[in-house]
């Protein structure tokens, strides 16, 4: 039996990826209550919160060999929040289907909007933590739609400097999305929309 005092989270993840059930159980034990609290804070429904957390842990086991997890708590919290949005979207979809007499086109449009909203909010959080020049270049380019030459003039830097900062910002954002596992659940259309 694995002792919670012996293994670090990173060691547990390594064991988990080797198929160690005891490592999975230890991760579950360490994070279950915290994750239920996060899910409950978003759903205000104990049963829904517990179901969401169970599903996230099941997906952790199933996807264990395809994930790069640097921060177990952060990874699980992000997965929980995304699962809450998915659950909310599913509930909204059920309601819309009833209200609109199975008008699937409008329902799928709402799904896309909710995914886009979540992704935009998540990316905004990453962008706020970027180094200042990267943050400004990203905002000018992706949020205001400015061309590199205009950004260079605005910031009084070269176009090569704009390209370098934009490349760095995109790399940081993409790495964050990969690390948290969000890339596994986001559609390619959304990534293209945000030019990631």
What does this structure look like?
This protein has 196 residues and is mostly helical. It folds into two domains: 1-100, Orthogonal Bundle (Rna Polymerase Sigma Factor, Chain: A), CATH 1.10.1740; 103-196, Winged helix-like DNA-binding domain superfamily/Winged helix DNA-binding domain (Arc Repressor Mutant, subunit A, Orthogonal Bundle), CATH 1.10.10. It is built from nine helices and no strands. The radius of gyration is 20 Å and the shape is globular.
Count of individual domains: 2
Report mean pLDDT, rounded to a whole number. 80
* CATH uppermost class of the largest domain: Mainly Alpha
CATH superfamily of the largest domain: RNA polymerase sigma factor, region 2, helix turn helix motif
Task: Give the total of beta strands.
Answer: 0
Helix and strand composition category: mainly alpha
């Amino acid at each position: 039996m694995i002792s919670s005092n012996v293994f670090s989270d990173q060691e547990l993840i390594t064991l988990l990826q080797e198929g160690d059930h005891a490592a999975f159980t230890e991760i579950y034990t360490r994070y279950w209550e915290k994750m239920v609290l996060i899910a409950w804070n978003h759903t205000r429904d104990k049963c829904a919160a517990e179901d969401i957390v169970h599903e996230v842990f099941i997906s952790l086991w199933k996807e264990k060999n395809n994930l790069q997890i640097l921060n177990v708590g952060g990874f699980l919290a992000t997965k929980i929040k995304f699962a809450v949005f998915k659950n909310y979207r599913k509930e909204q979809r059920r309601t819309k289907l009833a209200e609109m007499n199975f008008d699937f086109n409008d329902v799928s449009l709402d799904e896309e909007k909710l995914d886009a909203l979540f992704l935009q909010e998540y990316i905004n959080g990453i962008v706020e933590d970027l180094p200042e020049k990267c943050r400004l270049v990203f905002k000018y380019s992706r949020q205001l739609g400015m061309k590199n030459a205009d950004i260079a003039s605005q910031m009084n830097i070269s176009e090569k400097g704009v390209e370098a900062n934009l490349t760095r910002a995109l790399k940081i954002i993409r790495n964050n999305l990969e690390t948290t596992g969000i890339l596994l659940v986001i559609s390619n259309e959304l990534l293209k929309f945000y030019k990631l």
